Amino acid sequence: MLRDDADVNRRTYLKYVGGTAATVGLAGCSDDGGDGGDGGDGSDGGDGSDGSDGEDGSDGEDEEQLPEPETREEHLQRANRLLHDRAPWIFLNRQYSVYGIASRLDWDARRDERIEAQAISVTEGEPSVTITQSSMDSGLDPHDHRETPTDNIVVQAHDGVLGRNADGDIIEALATDYERLEDGRVRFEIRDGVTFHNGDELQPSDIAYSVNRVVDEEVGIASPQNDQLAGVTGAEVVDGGVEVTSDGINPIVFSLFASYCKVVQQDWIESRDSSAINSDMNGTGPFQVVEYEQDVEIVYEPYEDYWGDAPEIEELTIRSASEASTRVSQLLAGETDLIVNVPPQEVSRVRDEGATEVTAVPSTRVVFNAMRYDVEPFSSVEFRQALNYAIDLDSIIENILQGFADPTGQPTLEGFVGYNEEVDPYPQDVEQAEQLVEDSGHAGAEITLETPVGRYLRDVEIAQAVASQIDELSNVSCEVEQRDFASLAGEVTSGDIENTPPFYLLGWGNTTFDASQTIIPLLTSDGALSSYQDDDEVDELMSESQDLPGGN
Fold first, then answer.
1. Using a CB cutoff of 8 Å and minimum separation of 24, what contacts does 373-376 make?
2. Predicted structure pTM score
């Protein structure tokens, strides 16, 4: 937690903060706040490579001839290089997770933004805890969402096959052992004596069903989590264990199961319609649902027969408030115990109150502005590059986020498998940006950036700064449209690019620490949430990478 220093910024903060912030090295954050480069030395953001539609790259030079990638990491690094040059996003920043917490609680923030109430200790007062997020769930079906607020609600009641500790290491959960039998086949040994909240015993068939429900829409739903288990083709019970098959080696299969795929009871799911599944939970986790009011709150109590360590909390409530100032006021008034996304300008206010503290950690989330490749003017690589050159990213990080972020120039965060250390963030170059707009044939374009409100740290303010800097170009006009997060996320996760806005701000958390789980879902032709398709070279690199050894 913070000392009472007058100047609170990222560097002094991380100097004094304890707990999970000590894992900054593991998260891959450099001491100077960079993300593999200085992002502002005046060098070109691209290397002059050709764009995805055959047009010239950022400086008009011939594409640099690079050696063919051989290893999996080289494939991922090449994909990151190409994506930087072809600019399907305005690359923004790595988000820091900044929490406000009542001093009576003992809790360490995690880099994956997961809030597991079982890890919270109450040092004084009533053993009840209220958590306030930026939004509530989109429904309680563990396999029918893609957003962190819903995940934080689901994770209290549902376990995975594997899990992760606060440092991101893979740990046992409902599986007590796991091994790779051969390329494309792994086996999990299932924990004995585990029961669901309705009292029924966990069966290996429940785990196989849960996997199949995510990867095979014929099992029940077209799960938006399908690509979270990228490469997995199915699961079956064999000799009391569960064997999972994949298309190819699937080098990160255990990492995928450590982050994704909550286990449900097959009979319970199949005996209920969608409405019932989305309004209650029957998991094997440490907490069971007592009350649920959609869009308002959910209340839990400990599950007495939980297979793991019993939680210290006797009552857990999760609520939401989209405005950060509202969450801060509720924390200071004692109406809640833990809040997300404390704005940098509110850190001192929370810190100086005797009953509250602030804790922060560099997250696994990248924040970006996606541009649909199939909609003008974003179909032009020159136009997309121009928007990157229009942005003063260093100023946004310093003045809006007050240093609680790191700049990015590629989809993959530093410290992840596949990060390309030779790729720098785009520097601001207004003259270059205006020339690229002219080259694109879209001079005079009028565009709108759609942003959620309160979902990410200062998301609206970031969007307003981006739009303002674009609008300062002499040949582009840009404005901001504020959106409800659930509505915007629903459009992006619909599986149909036609439902996706042309230009929007979003954040993506990747808890596998592997480039594939950002690039595949967001930036390939078959990605469930992709705004960038028909790039055969990126598609081929990612496909080949999934059949090479070298995961994490």
1. 373/52, 373/88, 373/531, 373/532, 373/533, 373/534, 373/535, 374/497, 374/533, 375/502, 376/442
2. 0.77
